[in-house]
Amino acid sequence: MVSLKNFVGCICEIKTIENELLVLGRISAVFDVEENSIEIVSSDGSDMPNVVFGTRVKINVFSNKFGFLGLEGQIYIAHNSFWRIYDIACFGENERRAYFRINNYSKAEVETETEDGVLLQYSCIVKSVSISGILIAVSDVECNFQIGTKLKVNDVAVGESQRTFDLKCIVRRVDFHSQHGRLYGCELQDMNELEIEKLCQAIFAQQRLEIKRRRGLN
After folding, report:
1. In tens digits, what is the pLDDT along the chain, a chain of 218 residues?
2. Do residues 95 and 115 make contact, with C-beta atoms less than 8 angstroms apart?
3. Which of 2.40.10.220, 3.90.1070.20, 2.60.120.260, 2.60.40.2550 is the CATH number of 102-209?
4. Which one, 36, 95, 120, 178, has least CB within 10 Å?
5. Per CATH, is 4-98 categorized as 2.40.50.140?
């Protein structure tokens, strides 16, 4: 595992073991030679929420340089300005596709080019977006993308922001929904650091909004 000290300053989302999002934070310090204790502050400078001492949590971390890191730990200091989490352990990449994911419902256009150079275009619904992938639904019965098909999804609105994105991706899984047609789970590709940063900002803004709503804040 890459040294946790490389992730100091990186954005992280903290969830319960049941995957309820608690706070969007930032790793501010790593302690101990074994790096089994970290400190996390709010990503936007607001107070950290109240939490029960000893709560086990998941910490999903993202770095432009080192990628995704999934951790588990136990809260032993819960101050309004920081949380100290110890007994840190890596739980690997098994939940990577869910990292920093928000549910979405926006209309977009998806396109691909056949081997013969024919451009195929379909209307789609973007059902969820994460830093690493996108889930789209296409109701057109003529659409039959296969695993490995390269796509471009245009004018994707992320959450409630006004910012839209044109996202290049590749189909990694295909499912069928009785109401929405075919579902395509796609991995994002060919994004530069600036594009990743802008997508992160939009996703984080929506996560903060959803957290505030759950707490009854405006």
Report:
1. 678 999 999 999 999 998 889 999 999 999 987 889 999 999 888 899 999 999 999 999 988 888 888 899 999 999 999 999 999 988 755 455 567 889 988 999 999 998 888 999 999 999 999 988 999 999 999 999 999 999 999 999 998 877 899 999 999 999 988 788 899 999 999 998 888 888 988 998 898 888 888 777 65
2. no
3. 2.40.10.220
4. 178
5. no
